[in-house]
């Protein structure tokens, strides 16, 4: 009889431990699971170039730049491109979501107009030349 009580007590203790652990995991801030995430919210014409609105989160102490590239989607010889960066000292890296608007510079000889279909890419770029968390979308200006 004592061994059956002991087994029930151990089983009960194990169940409580599992529930407490699951509760602690569920209560943990979701931001810790989503650092270094990017999302393209909008791509638009913005004189004299283009503008990309991005929502980002990043780890504290991260040494990356935020880069955006946009290229016109065409079947001809029009290779219009635009690019922009946010330097690492301008990023707020604290696991929370932040929104930034990147004003892109249009490459020489490139042009964009209302109704153009473009492909946008955003990513983090580190000091060693690696890129992370790349996100892409196609949009109409």
Uncertain residue segments: 15-33
Rounded average pLDDT: 83
- Calculate Rg over CA atoms: 24 Å
Q: Sketch the major β-sheet.
A: 7 strands, antiparallel
Describe the protein in words.
The protein is elongated and about 80 Å long. It has a seven-stranded antiparallel β-sheet with strand order 1-2-5-4-3-6-7, with no helix packed on it. β1 and β2 form a beta hairpin. It is of the alpha+beta class and 141 residues long. The longest helix is centred in the N-terminal third of the chain and has 26 residues, at 2-27. Helices cover 18% and strands 45% of the residues.
Key terms for this structure?
141 residues; 7-stranded antiparallel beta sheet; single chain; alpha+beta
Explain briefly what this protein structure is.
With 141 residues, this protein is an alpha+beta fold. It is built from 1 helix and 7 strands.
Please give the structural blueprint.
Layout: H1 2-27, E1 37-46, E2 49-57, E3 64-72, E4 81-86, E5 98-106, E6 117-126, E7 131-140
Antiparallel strand pairs: 1-2, 2-5, 3-4, 3-6, 4-5, 6-7
């Amino acid at each position: 009889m004592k061994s059956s009580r002991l087994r029930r007590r151990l089983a009960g203790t194990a169940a409580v431990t599992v529930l407490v652990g699951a509760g602690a995991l569920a209560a943990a801030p979701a931001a810790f699971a989503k650092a270094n995430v990017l999302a393209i919210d909008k791509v638009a014409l913005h004189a004299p170039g283009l503008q990309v609105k991005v929502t980002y989160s990043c780890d504290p102490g991260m040494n990356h730049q935020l880069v955006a590239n946009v290229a016109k989607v065409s079947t001809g010889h029009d290779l219009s491109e635009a690019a922009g960066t946010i330097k690492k000292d301008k990023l707020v890296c604290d696991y929370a979501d932040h929104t930034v608007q990147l004003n892109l510079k249009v490459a020489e000889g490139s042009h964009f107009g209302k109704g153009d279909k473009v492909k946008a890419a955003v990513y983090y770029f580190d000091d060693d030349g690696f890129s992370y968390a790349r996100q892409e979308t196609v949009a109409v200006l």
